[in-house]
Amino acid sequence: MDTQITTKFKINKSAKEVFEAIVDPVEIGNFWFSSSSERWEQGRMITLKYDEYGAEGIIHVLEVDPNKNIVFTWGAEHDEETVVTITLNELDKMSTTIEVCESGFKKEDPELVNKMVGQKGGWVYMLSCLKSYLENDVNNLRASMLN
Amino acid sequence: MDTQITTKFKINKSAKEVFEAIVDPVEIGNFWFSSSSERWEQGRMITLKYDEYGAEGIIHVLEVDPNKNIVFTWGAEHDEETVVTITLNELDKMSTTIEVCESGFKKEDPELVNKMVGQKGGWVYMLSCLKSYLENDVNNLRASMLN
After folding, report:
1. CB–CB of A2 and B114 under 8 A?
2. In this predicted model, what pLDDT tens digit does every residue of B70-79 receive, in sequence order?
3. Which residues lie closer than 8 Å to B56 by C-beta, 6 or more apart?
4. Which pairing describes strands A82-92 and B145-146: parallel, antiparallel, or unpaired?
5. Tens digits of per-residue pLDDT, B81-91?
6. What residue ranges do the domains of chain B occupy?
7. Where is the signal peptide (chains A, B) (predicted)?
8. Any idea which fold A7-136 has?
9. Which residues of B touch A (CB under 8 A)?
């Protein structure tokens, strides 16, 4: 069984605008986490908070290639580390594809399928919020998925 | 393994507005399918088209309780019928929870996990588009998830 999950969207903005929305701690609050402790740069450990869900997590940024890709790990503090690779591909000045691939789920985990299904939902939600924010200035789509 | 997938969102609109967006063939084009052959009513077979993905499907509407719930089956033409139950719960005149539960995936299907992951992504996307449309009049969030 393939335990990677991949989600890809087309966003009608430049790669730079999509990239900045993710790495800039002020921008991120408009579509994803409520706060990010600092700008995402290679080698940094960043604390992300999601006030509405009472959640907090640490990501370790492994690679950043501006306007092209971002690789980080998260979940290490709960012994369920996965690797997230975000790849941007600028089609033209006004459209970019963004692909998010999360890998490293443990095949022996009895909760594997639930986790994969949950993470898929999370990534589709994040990318929907990102697109709605960048293209339409909507910053209130986030934080409304309920458990 | 639980093969149901459930997705729940809070939308800041009345249950009637959320309900109408789904059952009305004009409304649906703003956030989900490109067309729906007729209004969703109990017992009807409805043809849904998704022009951007070159896709078409038939749903069989089993139950409709206005502003409360909608139950339908789909996928019968591909011998992979599942049951979708949409439940609305109006919290007050300006907020409603919408829960979508899809069940009936075949446990012996070698593609079971991929299908569940894919459907989860689809429902999160549909509900994100629905919320963005109803709350912010955004009708261009749909049809941008790529395979």
Report:
1. yes
2. 999 999 999 9
3. B47, B48, B49, B50
4. unpaired
5. 999 999 999 99
6. 5-136
7. none
8. Alpha-D-Glucose-1,6-Bisphosphate; Chain A, domain 4 (3.30.530)
9. 1-2, 5, 7-11, 97, 113-114, 116-118, 120-121, 123-125, 127-129, 131-132, 135-136, 138, 140-141, 144-147
